[in-house]
Structures are given as C-alpha cells and as structure tokens.
Amino acid sequence: LVLVVDFGAQYAQLIARRVREARVYSEIVPHSMPVAEMMAMGPKAIILSGGPSSVYAEGAPGLDPAIFEAGTAVFGMCYGFQLMAQGLGGTVAETGAREYGRTRVHVGHAGTLLGGVPTEHNVWMSHGDSVTAAPDGFEVLASTAGTPVAAFENVDRGLAGVQWHPEVLHTEHGQKVLEHFLWDIAGCRQTWTIGNIAEEQIERIRAQIGTDGRAICGLSGGVDSAVAAAIVQKAIGDRLTCVYVDHGLMRKGETEQIERDFVAATGTKLVVVDAEKQFLEALAGVSDPETKRKIIGREFIRTFEAAEVDIIKSSPAGSTVKFLVQGTLYPDVVESGGGTGTSNIKSHHNVGGLPDDLEFELVEPLRTLFKDEVRLVGEQLGLPPELVWRHPFPGPGLGIRIIGEVTRERLDILREADAIARAELTAAGLDRDIWQFPVVLLADVRSVGVQGDGRTYGHPVVLRPVTSEDAMTADWARVPYDVLERISTRITNEVREINRVTVDITSKPPGTIEWE
Ligand code: XMP
C-alpha cells in the first residue's frame, strides 16, 4: 500500500493512478490525518502531493515531521518536496521567483531516483518558493534555471523528492522517476495487476455477503453497474439478481446488449422490466426539459422498487435480500470525503405489502477503482467490448436528446440517426478520442429540403461530438470532415424523416454537453 497525502491540489488522484500504473496499490488520505493513523494503515511508502505554491502562503497546510522518522519511505512532489525540505532542516527560500509550466531541468547526479533519465529534459512545474539548500545527508540530483535544488534523495532513509510534477503527462520520464522511487527506493512489489484486482474484489464481496446473503443490482446499461454486477455474480452466483428497467429511451441495440450479451458473458440472473409504455405515457405532452427529467426519475424509482419487491417476495422461504450492489467509483469516494466503511441506505417503497422502509447494506465492488481500471476489469471478466468502452450516457437517455415532446416515433428516428453516427465514429477508430457524441433531434423544427425527386419538409439533427476529461468542461471535437460527411450522407439517405445534419461547435461552458 502506498498512501498519497492530499494537500488540496487536483493532483492527488492523478498520482494515485500513476502509482497503480506502476502496479502498486495506492490510496488517498487527507493531509489532516495524524501520522500515527497513516502508519496504522501499514503503508510501504508515502507520497506527499502538490498543493499551494508556497509553504509560506497564508493557511498553507503543514506536515508533522514525525512522518520522516516512522521508518516508511517518503516521496515529496512540488509542494510536498518543499515541506520535506523544510521538515528535514533544509532551506526553502521565499525567492519570489516563479516557475510555471514547461521547465528545463538539468540532472547533475542521477543517483537512484533519476537513474537512466536524460541529463537535460522537460518537466512540468508550478511553484513560487525554491529549495536553496538540501537537508543534511541528502544528495542534490537536479536543478533548473530558477531552482538550485530541484530533486534530492537519501536512499538509506528511503526519502526523496522532486520540485516538479512527475505525475502529469507533460513531464518527460515522470513515470520512470516515480517507479524508481516505488521499486528501487521504497522496495514496493509489483502486485497490483488487473487479474489480482478482480480476484481480490471477488473475495472481499464473498466475505461481505456471506454464504447465504442475497443481493440485488440495478443495471443501467453503462460500464460501472455492469462490472460491479459481474464481480458480485462471480462471488455469490445466482444469489444475485440484476434488474434492468427498459424505459424505452435507450439507444439502438443497447437493451439487447444487456439482455443477451451481458447475460451470455456473465451468466447473471436478470429481470428485465419492460416499462416503455409506462414511461411514454408519463412523458406524453411534456416538452420542458426539467419536467421530463423529473418524470423519468420518478418513474424509474417506482419501477425499480416494484421489481425489488417482486424479487424479495419470490426469493426462497427463509432467505432475505439484504444487499444492494452499486457501481460507486474511487473518485466519488475521495470527493465525498473518503471513508472505508460500508453504509446503509434506505429505500422508500410506494408499493404495498412490505414495510415502508427497507434497509439495504451497500455492496460496492468498485469503491477502490478508477474508471480505467474498471474498464480493464470488465475486459478481464469477458464483458462485451461495446459495453466496456461505452461513452457516458445520461440516465434520462434519449428523452433529453429529443427537443420537444418524446414519442415512440421520434425515438425511433433518433435511434436510427444515432446508430449511424456511432457506427461511423467506430469505423473511423475515433471512439476513444471522443468523450461523448450525442445526436440531438430537433423534433419541433422543420426545414425544407430536396431528397430524391421531391421537396421534403423534415427535421434536423445536431451532432454534438465533444472532448473532455471529466464532463465538467468540454470542447467541441474536431471530427475529420470526411467522417462528418459520411455521417451526414448516411443519415439523410437512410432516415427518411431527417433532411438536414448540423454540427454543434460550442464549448462547455457556455454550452452544456447535452442540449437539455
Ligand atoms: P451536461 O449536459 O451538464 O452533462 O454538460 C455533463 C455530463 O453528465 C451527463 N448527464 C447526465 N447523466 N443523468 C445522468 O446520469 C442525468 O440526468 C444527466 N444529465 C447529463 C451528460 O451526458 C454528460 O456526460
């Protein structure tokens, strides 16, 4: 285990991922955690992340120097490097000099940390103060124009640090430096592999649920719930029942992917609730986006809970369904303040015949995993690649990609156009470059066109391909013209009701990714 101490910058998650890429398990802890508590977790090494630009900044978080005496290897990056220098008796000068962005670093003495790294290379910096003298017993390894001490190590004590950010993509040889620390200085073993991750989770879930517990899992059609279910299925077999609510707002082929391919790949017991009619009736006559979302959310909960009740009623006499599986990921856990325990949630039932409140214990097999690890585990468990690599898709589905009232006919039109856009994107090999590619039907708009021999009066669709890291911000994707051309030609030829294809070139902000 490697602990990444989060000093409040956005880098801790990235560091934790890079450590795992070096096949060593990592977890993030807040800087407010006492050193004794960190040590109680038994870490093989500790990494101090970046943070504010100066250890002298007002309110800058400090560090208990006891951390350096606890017998565990410590690696400081950026702010963490300065804290280390300060805590060990070196000098951090308020030079006022700043280095931001790409910076040239000169390696004077490679030592263990910078072994095999070129003497001159580019790294990513963001700091104000500089370390001007290394602590006693430390070897200075590198410098930059503005920083006399940009890296140091004391291999005997297992302590090392760099002023730059080895975890970011723009830093050359960053992963190599991190691996030198983990493998050669801290002596971490490379045991965090995808095969082991899956095995470990299966064991953990088996222990949590016990030999006679039963669980329910809602499948959304996305990768997280599918992988979570696949892991639990491996752990407890058909004591798991999955529920998939078909609200009729999915894209072409997606329901079949779950109903047929997911079940074939995992052998999961699946209940499919065909609720299309119920959803469309509830949505009839509604075109306001927020009202649509509310209706879809409400109907979804009702339907899912009714399915839960049926499963509970039909499970073998004497057994109780006590567990609810959820696809919570590690970033959600970190962002909501961490915590390692399991929590209970209450499910409020509107359906008669059972207690008002049913209490479930949550089962969260992906709680320690990042999205890219979830995908690799999904592949390892043999899930269909279209499912594993699926783009994010909103819960309300195509319901918020039809501008205007949602009807069966409009959904069918949009499904055809969307399937063409997806197929062409895949054929062009661009799936993994594009974050999401909504196709939006302007159902209340018509424009004049000419198709075949005659005048038409059809609907436009909007293509909305975007690039993004986290959906908080996004840019419109520069999809090659020839790919756009094929999509446009095929949609207007193959979907009779559509006679115009447009591309949305708005970034987020100001536009959101979805149109509603
Ligand atoms: P916007 O449109 O706000 O979307 O830029 C950001 C991300 O969230 C997805 N999204 C949703 N996901 N339920 C979901 O599960 C929703 O109601 C919902 N609305 C938007 C959207 O697809 C994008 O990835």
Automatic annotation (TrEMBL):
Signal sequence residues: none
Annotated GMPS ATP-PPase domain residues: 192-390
Residues where ATP binds: S220, G221, G222, V223, D224, S225, A226
UniProt-listed Enzyme Commission number(s): 6.3.5.2
Gene3D superfamilies registered for this protein in UniProt: 3.30.300.10, 3.40.50.880, HUPs
Broad class of enzyme this protein falls into: ligase
Matches recorded under CDD domains: GATase1_GMP_Synthase, GMP_synthase_C
PROSITE patterns: GATASE_TYPE_1, GMPS_ATP_PPASE
A Pfam family the protein falls into: NAD_synthase
SUPFAM superfamilies referenced in this protein's UniProt entry, alphabetically: Adenine nucleotide alpha hydrolases-like (SSF52402), Class I glutamine amidotransferase-like (SSF52317), GMP synthetase C-terminal dimerisation domain (SSF54810)
Superkingdom of the organism of origin: Bacteria
Pathway recorded for this protein: Purine metabolism; GMP biosynthesis; GMP from XMP (L-Gln route): step 1/1
Keyword annotations: ATP-binding, Glutamine amidotransferase, GMP biosynthesis, Ligase, Nucleotide-binding, Purine biosynthesis
Catalyzed reaction equations: XMP + L-glutamine + ATP + H2O = GMP + L-glutamate + AMP + diphosphate + 2 H(+)
Presence of the UniProt keyword ATP-binding in the record: yes
Active site: C78, H165, E167
Keyword ATP-binding appears in the UniProt entry: yes
InterPro entries: Class_I_gatase-like, GATASE, GMP_synth_C, GMP_synth_GATase, GMP_synthase, GMPS_ATP_PPase_dom, NAD/GMP_synthase, Rossmann-like_a/b/a_fold
Gene Ontology molecular functions: GMP synthase (glutamine-hydrolyzing) activity
Function: Catalyzes the synthesis of GMP from XMP.
Assembly behavior: Homodimer.
Protein name: GMP synthase [glutamine-hydrolyzing]
Organism expressing this protein natively: Nocardioides bizhenqiangii
